[in-house]
Amino acid sequence: MFSEYLKSISWEETTRAIYSKREDDVKRALSRRSCSVDDFMALISPAAEPYLEEMAQLSLRYTRERFGKTMSLFIPLYLTNSCTNSCVYCGFHVSNRMKRTVLTFEEMENEYRAIKRLGPFENLLLVTGENPAVAGVEYLARALDLAKPHFSNLKIEVMPLKSEEYAYLTEHGLNGVICFQETYNRERYNIYHPRGMKSNFEWRVNAPDRMGQAGVHSIGMGALIGLEEWRTDVTMLAYHLRYLQKHYWKTKYSVNFPRMRPAENEGFQPNVVMTDKELAQLTFAMRIFDHDVDISYSTREPAAFRDNMARLGVTTMSAESKTEPGGYFSYPQALEQFHVSDERTAVEVEAALRGLGLEPVWKDWDSSFDMIANGEKRQNI
Ligand code: SF4
Predict the structure, then answer these.
(1) Sorting pLDDT into bands at 50, 70 and 90, what band is 380?
(2) What is the mean pLDDT of the chain?
């Protein structure tokens, strides 16, 4: 499990190593076709800042080689804002007095149909807070069953599950799971996640292992930028990615670096602010480090910045997102988890991407692949 591997990596030494990188380390990393985590550290270090243009060109080249000019589009649907956790940076935390909503199955279907009216979305991400009593595995299975006729690629971003639960949901059409670690700083993790299931660092950090064991096709990972030293957190993410690729090599991976935005409770302000330039540097570094990983940007990022980065390394984007449950049809005025920056419609995002010479992709997975994958799994049992 990755938690064991992580014990061998010191947070403090990693931070020191990143800040001790020099120009030669950056040049060496840029000259390599295949980069190590140590090279990645050089590319995200302050020493690489003068090489941003060179990094952008390299990132563009690798992205074109692997992904062509495509940009995969997806949309999230929040099924509930009910949560038993107390993440200090989130408006949905358990002690926040607010109206909690759990979509009924009928409401879900209305949302699915409303989303299809926004654009030809085929990639749907179902999101919940963490409250298994009201939105547990059976609830998710039903949500997937109902979504299947409308969408060809179904992902979830929910509480970490057991391996057998992930496997069970794949039988209901699940294709991918996203679970952000938020921060890999074991010592300080509980400052941000003091109570509830999410306070268990090991359970969360090992969730991708359990997804890999269950044969989930696509695993999404991320660090929440704003909690701890971002360079160290994304280096841990790079270690995690390499570890998973080695152990679950058939799986597709995606990474995301959401920058914290003000929560509705307005209590928590980010400890660390990442500038646009730094996010660009990180995106280029990740692409140079891993030519195949999907790099995903959400609507947390402003439209102009998303458009700029769309050509230079990003391969997946959300569009027209609502971050409150039932935001497309049932409860458009509910409290949102975070405020989006890019408020363009899906059609406007599509047009902007085409204007940049890119090819927006609404569908990049077909449910018949699920049948093949499930058939393979059954044969292997
Ligand atoms: S970040 Fe997720 S788990 Fe934490 S309080 Fe918000 S909804 Fe709950």
Answers:
(1) very low
(2) 93
pLDDT at 378: 45
List the one residue out of 246, 249, 243, 245 whose CA is nearest residue 4. 243
The DSSP element (H or E) to which 233 belongs, if any, is helix 230-247
d(CA 316, CA 294): 7
* 98 Cα to the center of ligand 1, angstroms: 14
Cβ atoms of 78 and 87 within 8 Å: the answer is: no
pLDDT of residue 371: 57
Indicate the SS3 state at residue 304. helix
Which residues have CB under 6 Å of ligand 1? Answer: 83, 85, 87, 90, 92-93, 129-130, 198
Please name the residue whose Cα sits nearest to atom 4 of ligand 1: 87
Q: Which atom of ligand 1 is nearest to the CA of 86?
A: 5
CA 93 to ligand 1 center in whole angstroms = 6
CATH architecture of 2-380: Alpha-Beta Barrel (3.20)
